[in-house]
Amino acid sequence: MEASPPILRGGFRPFFLGAGIWAILAIAIWLWALEAGTMRIGALDPLSWHRHEMLFGFVGGAIAGFSLTAVPNWTGRLPIAGAPLAGIALWWLTARLLPFAFPNLPLMALAAVDGGFYVGLALLILREIVQAKNRNVPVAIVIGLLGVANILDYAGAAGAIDPDLGIHAGIGIAVVLVSLIGGRIVPSFTRNWMQREQVSGTMPTQAGRFDLAVIAVTTVALIAWIVFGLAEYPAVLLLAAGLLQLLRLARWSGWRTARSPIVVVLHLAYVWIPVGLLLLAATGFGYPIAPSAGIHALTVGAMASMILAVMTRATLGHTGRALHADLATRACYAAIQLAVIARVLASVMSEFYQPLLHVAGAFWIAAFGLFVFAYAPKLLSERSDAASK
Please, are residues 259 and 324 in contact by the beta-carbon 8 Å criterion? Predict the structure, then answer.
């Protein structure tokens, strides 16, 4: 591992950097396509490409980085590094660039490469977890299901199935994963900070039966949305899930961490799960709110905000630096929140859709531009402490 260049000494390094750069490029390409009126981006129409790359490119890359970094902590086994890590990262990158290099390649061939990445990643993680007799098997299963959703999305783009099935399934799976992992790290990091700062009062606790029930109701509600759309029955479930998620978040006392940007951002990211579920429920009940409002609250809000929160924190911790949010980090946290607010408002205020869309895009690019600017040097260099020796 030490013989490898720093970028290949942990899964978080290539994948966090790749996800950050791809987040910038993908939105820039999408906004250009809207202005230019182009009919294709790579092998897909612009909307299909945008939805696919935001979820399975950007979000999926960040999930890969997180899982490859977390598994050694869960299992006590050596991390994937060096040439094997380079191969996995190259697989992800190939899936991003292949549609441009070969725009006439059959969509199901692209699906085999892109969806296969997640299936392969899931099997790799499952092997590590099973050999260590660890309890995190559900994480590997969820990542494998993300690969299935990826393939379904290509099938939808090819006209073989409902074009929304794969992307909605992918969103649902990712939301469940954020709910599952977020439910562990948010109260844990909050409790650690409160104890260190000697904050009085009740401390957040780790997941219990109530949390499992919230995740179960959220999963059922999202399955109902995926299968039946925004009809009244799924809307009732989405409403229940949203309210339960709000109650779950309130139990973690996030307002008491306002003095620590690197902690409070976790709560700000998680709050978009109940907001997104409640917006989808409102649409299902017939309120004049476009479905994209709830979808972008879940994707730009919960997913992208949590990704930035985790990427910054994990990079600092795993490169031997203090868990302190500097000015650039705080600015990227603020920019992503402004991006999601603008994007949700664009769906709600249709008369201002175009300008708000560009405002959201500008803040998004600023958020991830700041991340790449501030964290690329850390991801590309040795650890800053003696632990690297």
Answer: no
Round to whole Å and give the CA distance between 339 and 356: 9
pLDDT at site 388? 42
Between CA 131 and CA 129 the distance in angstroms is: 6
Q: Which uninterrupted H or E stretch holds 250?
A: helix 232-250
Cα radius of gyration rounded to whole Å, the chain: 20
Instruction: Name all contacts of 1-8 with Cβ < 8 Å and 24+ positions apart.
Output: 1/78, 1/79, 1/81, 1/82, 3/82, 4/81, 4/82, 4/83, 4/85, 6/379, 6/380, 6/381, 6/382, 7/379, 7/380, 8/81, 8/82, 8/83, 8/85, 8/86
Q: Are 280 and 228 a contacting pair, CB within 8 Å?
A: no
- pLDDT, tens digit (0-9, with 9 covering 90-100), for 290-343: 999 999 999 999 999 999 999 999 999 999 999 999 999 999 999 999 999 999
pLDDT above 60: residue 146:
yes
The CA distance from 179 to 275, in Å, is: 13
* Look-up of token digits 């296969």: 116
Residue 117 near residue 143, CB atoms below 8 Å = no
Residue type, 126: L
DSSP letters spanning 135-176: S-HHHHHHHHHHHHHHHHHHHHHTTSS-TTHHHHHHHHHHHH
Taken in order 101, 17, 371, 77, the sign of the CA dihedral is positive
Residue 288, CA distances (Å) to 282, 297, 341, 348 in order:
8, 16, 18, 8
Q: For the chain, give the mean pLDDT.
A: 94
Note the Cα 343 to chain centre separation in Å.
Answer: 17
Buried b (16+ CB within 10 A) or exposed e, 99-127: beeeeeeebeebbeebbebbbbbbebbbe
Distance CA 110, CA 116 (A): 9
**pTM, whole model, 2 decimals?**
0.94
Strands (E) in the chain, as ranges, are none
**Sign of the four-CA dihedral 157, 160, 161, 162:** positive
